[in-house]
């Protein structure tokens, strides 16, 4: 009797039919999402680029004592700290060609 009551509540559908209909909805949405990912991948065209090469070319400040390279955006106080802590020298002795802030 319980089975019959359940069918009446669920509009006469079997349990198996009900579960199949639910799974077909989720598969459709998954396919849509995959299609959208593929479409977006085609539209972007550009791939992620590495910043490493750019950073290497930007290292144009060189300590004349140890030849350590620094990015061109490195400021004078940081370079002065390097000269004093690593070599016990003045900023001007380690970085005579420095033209910055």
From TrEMBL:
Bias type Polar residues, positions: 18-27, 42-51
Region listing for Disordered, in residue ranges: 1-51
Annotated ranges, domain Small EDRK-rich factor-like N-terminal: 27-60
Stored InterPro entries: At2g23090-like, At2g23090-like_Znf, SERF-like_N, ZNF706/At2g23090_sf
Residues annotated as domain At2g23090-like zinc-binding: 62-97
Biased amino acid composition, Basic and acidic residues: 1-17
Protein name: Uncharacterized protein
Species: Saitoella complicata (strain BCRC 22490 / CBS 7301 / JCM 7358 / NBRC 10748 / NRRL Y-17804)
């Amino acid at each position: 009797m319980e089975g019959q009551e359940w069918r009446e509540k669920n509009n006469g559908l079997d349990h198996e039919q009900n579960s199949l209909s639910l799974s077909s909805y989720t598969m459709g949405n998954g396919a849509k999402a995959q299609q959208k990912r593929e479409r977006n991948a085609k539209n972007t065209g550009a791939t992620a680029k590495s910043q490493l090469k750019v950073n290497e070319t930007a290292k144009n400040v060189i300590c004349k004592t140890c030849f350590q390279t620094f990015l061109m955006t490195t400021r004078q106080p940081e370079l002065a700290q390097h000269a004093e802590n690593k070599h016990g020298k003045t900023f001007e002795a380690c970085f005579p060609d420095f033209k910055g802030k």
